[in-house]
Specification:
8-stranded antiparallel β-sheet; single chain; globular; 10 strands; alpha+beta; 175 residues; 29% strand
């Protein structure tokens, strides 16, 4: 009986208490552009000004929405970007206002809610689950990425590593 209890306790402790969020406030990964525009209009902290904040990338025909929450005194957000792939929101990038919140406070809260990051470097901290990649980048940028779309874009990319990248990998492998 003790072994069975220990197994259940171990499994329970290994399951994250909270799954990663699929966005911030009213902006959620997977939204279509019209739904996001409507959500941003109602959520003033993003500073969305309407269609003049929407642009179309000529290279791939994908939409980008850029907003600036710093125009509103109550917002903790600065410039924000919302990137689309296949007409669905797949990256949300939020620059946070450093005069109102600091990197350590955000990092500590993310660790409290989602556990220790899966990747940690001087430049960024990254949490992952099967659906979302959440990263906190320095100086103070929070990024939500649709993991499945990101992985499929990465897999379909034909970009090879540079000689310097290959040499770096070989060096690290030799350690």
């Amino acid at each position: 009986m003790k072994k069975l209890f220990a197994v259940f306790a171990f499994v329970f402790l290994c399951i994250p208490i909270f799954s990663l969020p699929n966005g911030y406030s009213s902006a959620k990964l997977g939204m279509d552009i019209d739904s996001l525009k409507e959500a941003l209009k109602k959520d003033h902290q993003f500073g969305y000004r309407g269609d003049r904040d929407v642009s179309l990338s000529p290279s791939d025909g994908q939409f980008l929405i850029e907003t600036d929450g710093s125009k509103f005194g109550f917002s903790f957000l600065g410039r924000c970007w919302f990137q689309f792939a296949n007409d669905k929101l797949y990256i949300i990038t939020l620059n946070l206002d450093q005069s109102k919140v600091d990197h350590y406070s955000v990092f500590a809260k993310l660790c409290e809610k989602y556990g220790n990051p899966d990747e940690l470097s001087p430049k960024k901290s990254v949490w992952r689950d099967g659906d979302v990649i959440l990263s906190l980048e320095k100086p103070l940028t929070l990024k939500y990425t649709d993991a499945k779309v990101f992985d499929s874009k990465k897999d379909s990319s034909n970009v090879e590593k540079t000689t310097a990248e290959k040499a770096r990998d070989e060096f690290l492998d030799s350690l």
